[in-house]
């Protein structure tokens, strides 16, 4: 008898095949009436596969009385009710490390795109404005600029490592100073934003960091400053971000994440000083494959009674 597994979000094709071969899959993602579907099959589900975006809620967990593990594709688990899982003795796993490089690359891509005006430069060529109106306005050098990273975890460190050889001055903010890190630590986020030309958000999402990038922080960053977010939409006061970008209190932004995904606030579409990306920093074939494999491998370890590879709780 194959163990029954709930698929909230399917994996990449290779890994989905592995799941199909090993487990009896119940496709929540394909069910029209999801409530009725859970009522019908909830009792027999032993494991669930989801991702960082969809997660799993307490209401869903309540319908899965025999669930023992939630294996999620994504390093962030703010959409998973980990507290409810722990209460119910359900293990949660995520996919750290395998996505670090791609996410850090995207932070740097947004940083460069924003500071060197890549997207508007592209439009200047395509529209013929170059020939009609003349050369594109000058931008600002990256070299010698001050970059503050909020959240110096695995991804924050990978971003710093990429920026260091570009000749920027680096500082970081987090809950505490890290003994083995040479970058300048700033305990006050607003003070770091005031100091910085560019502020990069790389902290986890969730209640602890909600709205951390406040109106005050954005204003401290200022009219020449740029905000880059590859973390979660929830870490920034998005209404303040939109207002500050519109009226020039903040210079520019590069955003991979939004409060309402996949339908972000329509106001963003009319903001020329922002580069927008559809939450796809980990979205490469290689990395999504590695994330999917880690989801499969965590399930395998669980059903074999072995230690989980990347446990969250
Ligand atoms: C994914 C992410 O896009 O890892 C995360 O926390 O936000 C992204 O890698 C997300 O988990 C959906 O798969």
List keywords for this structure.
five-stranded parallel sheet; alpha/beta; Rossmann fold; elongated; binds 2-keto-D-gluconic acid; seven-stranded parallel sheet; 313 residues
Number of domains: 2
| Terminus-to-terminus distance | 28 Å
Q: Nearest-angstrom radius of gyration?
A: 22 Å
Helix fraction bin = 25-40%
CATH superfamily caption of the largest domain: NAD(P)-binding Rossmann-like Domain
How does the overall form come out from the CA principal axes? elongated
Largest sheet: 7 strands, parallel
Please provide the ordered H/E string of secondary-structure elements. Answer: EHEHEHEHEHHHEHEEHEHEHEEH
Q: In total, how many beta strands?
A: 12
The unique ligands bound to this protein are: 2-keto-D-gluconic acid
Overall CATH architecture of the largest domain: 3-Layer(aba) Sandwich
Integer average pLDDT? 98
Overview of this protein structure:
This protein is an alpha/beta fold. The chain folds into 2 domains: 111 residues, 3-Layer(aba) Sandwich (Rossmann fold), CATH 3.40.50.720; 177 residues, Rossmann fold, CATH 3.40.50.720. 36% of the residues lie in helices and 15% in strands. The chain contains 12 helices and 12 strands. The strands form 2 sheets. It has a 7-stranded parallel beta sheet, with helices on both faces. Helix 3 links the parallel strand 3 and strand 4. Helix 1 packs parallel to helix 12. The longest helix is centred in the last third of the chain and has 19 residues. The protein starts with a strand and ends in a 10-residue tail after the last helix. The model has no long low-confidence stretch (mean pLDDT 98). The structure holds 2-keto-D-gluconic acid (8YV). 2-keto-D-gluconic acid (8YV) binds next to loops.
């Amino acid at each position: 008898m194959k163990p029954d597994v709930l698929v909230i979000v399917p994996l990449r094709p290779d890994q989905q095949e592995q799941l199909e071969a090993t487990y009896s899959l119940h496709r929540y993602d394909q069910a029209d009436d999801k409530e009725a579907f859970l009522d019908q099959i909830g009792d027999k589900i032993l494991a669930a596969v989801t991702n960082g975006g969809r997660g799993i809620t307490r209401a869903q967990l309540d319908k899965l009385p025999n669930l023992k593990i939630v294996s999620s594709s994504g390093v962030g688990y703010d959409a998973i009710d980990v507290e409810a899982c722990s209460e119910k003795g359900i293990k949660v796993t995520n996919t750290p490390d395998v996505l670090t490089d791609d996410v850090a690359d995207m932070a740097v891509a947004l940083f460069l795109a924003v500071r060197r005006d890549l997207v508007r430069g592209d439009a200047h060529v395509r529209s013929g404005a170059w020939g009609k109106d003349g050369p594109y306005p000058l931008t600002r050098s990256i070299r010698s600029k001050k970059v503050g990273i909020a959240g110096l975890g695995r991804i924050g460190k990978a971003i710093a490592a990429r920026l260091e050889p570009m000749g920027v001055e680096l500082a970081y903010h987090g809950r505490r100073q890290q003994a083995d890190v040479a970058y300048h630590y700033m305990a006050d986020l607003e003070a770091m934003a005031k100091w910085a030309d560019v502020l990069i958000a790389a902290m986890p999402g969730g209640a602890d960091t909600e709205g951390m990038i406040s109106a005050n922080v954005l204003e401290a960053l200022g009219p020449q400053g740029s905000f880059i977010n590859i973390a979660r939409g929830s870490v920034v006061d998005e209404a303040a971000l939109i207002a500050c970008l519109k009226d020039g209190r903040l210079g520019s932004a590069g955003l991979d994440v939004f409060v309402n995904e996949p339908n972000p606030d329509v106001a963003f579409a009319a903001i020329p000083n922002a580069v927008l990306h559809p939450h796809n920093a980990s979205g490469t074939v290689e990395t999504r494959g590695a994330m999917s494999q880690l989801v499969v491998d965590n399930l395998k370890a669980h059903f074999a009674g072995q230690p989980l590879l990347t446990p969250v709780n």
